[in-house]
Design a protein that fits this description.
Blueprint: E1 6-12, H1 16-24, H2 26-29, E2 35-36, E3 44-49, E4 53-63, E5 67-77, E6 90-98, E7 101-109, H3 118-139, H4 153-160
Antiparallel strand pairs: 1-7, 2-3, 3-4, 4-5, 5-6, 6-7
Length: about 160
């Protein structure tokens, strides 16, 4: 069965625990501008990047070394007409073993090609997962965006508008 939700997967040599810990270190791979808790069930945190993107997440599933799921409680993009595009969607990190490696399957459930933000969000998530999260797991150092510092090419394009 074909799904249109955005998914990307990485394989690393580190343990499922190391992957789980890195995923929950959201400031270490997504943004230094995260406010709130990011590692316990029912924790809520906010993300913002300038006036371009703001969202509020809640951890609705936390299974140590196996799975983390965030619910997007609120979202704002300054470039999208429909401000509800992310609201109510879920972001899932599934961790498993595969041939002596740890597999992390990232899925943004509800992020579909019909969304105005799909291409930009797909590009940003791909960079954050394939590059920044992978590097945080493998080396202990991710490439999160910082205050006024875009990480991805898609973010750079948004602020140049």
């Amino acid at each position: 069965m074909k799904t249109e939700d955005f998914t990307t997967t990485i394989l690393v040599d580190q343990t499922p625990k190391q992957a789980f810990d890195a995923i929950n270190n959201v400031r270490g791979w997504w943004s230094e501008e995260i406010e709130g808790g990011t590692d316990k069930l029912n924790d809520e945190f906010t993300y913002h990047y300038k006036d371009v993107h703001n969202c509020k997440m809640k951890l609705i599933e936390v299974v140590p070394d196996k799975k983390v799921v965030w619910l997007v409680m609120d979202n704002y993009f300054d470039f999208a007409k429909d401000q509800t595009e992310w609201t109510g969607t879920k972001i899932s990190f599934e961790i498993s073993k595969e041939n002596n490696k740890t597999k992390i399957r990232f899925t943004h459930l509800g992020l579909v090609p019909e969304y105005e933000c799909y291409d930009i969000c797909k590009g940003a998530w791909t960079t954050y997962i394939q590059k920044s999260l992978r590097n945080l797991i493998e080396t202990g150092k991710g490439q999160p965006n910082g205050k006024d510092k875009p990480q991805t090419e898609d973010e750079k394009k948004l602020i140049e508008k």
